[in-house]
Amino acid sequence: MTDIPLEDRDLIDRYLANRLTETEVLVVETRIVEDVVFRNEVELTEALRDGLRELQSRGEIAPLLSHRRSMWRHPRFALAASLAAVALGVASFLFFQRLDDGSGELVVASLRFEHTRGAETEPDVVWRQTGAPTRLQMLFDVGLEPATAWHVRFEKVADGAVLRIMETTAMLNADGLAEISVESAALEPGDYRITLIAVPPTAPAAPIVFALRVSGQV
Question: Which of 22, 115, 177, 211 has its C-alpha lying 20 to 30 A from 196's C-alpha?
């Protein structure tokens, strides 16, 4: 990674974790367009995270770290092992730092999205804010679609206007549901359209769209 200020590193981390306000997201995305160094840092950080997620899903992180000594005998594996170890440590530190914010135990809410007949005009899921930082585990029923990964796009819908607020990737879990986690701070009260697109698009099937409504505290 490049030598950038700690404030920028924190900003990038929160941006990739979808923990910024809409105003902050606009600031970051403007910098991504205008500042080459900042853009490269965002791309590198995101690539490292994606690589680690892929290695973890394949069960290759533990062997990579446990056999790092022997890997140093092979130069082409040395850098990969070093980067994986460092990135894993940094990611773990940032993850637990977010949990240990003095606010008590982490709150987790599970939201399941599935379409029901006769409910086209109503949101598929309604979630009421609790006032406590919450991790929303979102599970999407994608039917019998063959894709194992899905590109997920969140858009806020208000007064006929549509504002894209974040994008992420969902993987199928053991129950055949596409699954992601979203921090509640990323979702202000309002109506959201969540679109799932198969990755890679193995067939010209239409995207799967769900509706979420986030309501404020009583």
Answer: 22
Using DSSP bridges, classify how beta strands 134-141 and 107-113 pair: parallel, antiparallel or unpaired: parallel
Strand 208-215 and strand 190-199: the pairing is antiparallel
Report d(CA 50, CA 57) in Å as an integer.
11
| 188 vs 185: CA distance, rounded Å | 7
What tens digit of pLDDT does each residue of 121-149 get?
A: 789 999 998 878 888 999 999 887 668 88
pLDDT 10s digits, 58-82: 665 555 555 444 444 444 444 444 4
Rg of the chain over Cα atoms, rounded to whole angstroms, equals 19
Report the DSSP beta bridge partners of residue 153: 167, 195
- The Cα 112–Cα 150 span in angstroms is 16
- What are the tokens at 70? 């022997």
Structure tokens at 171: 């993987």
Beta bridge mates, 111: 138
Q: Where are the alpha helices (DSSP H) in 35-159?
A: 36-57, 61-66, 68-71, 75-99
Cβ contact 151:171 at 8 Å? no
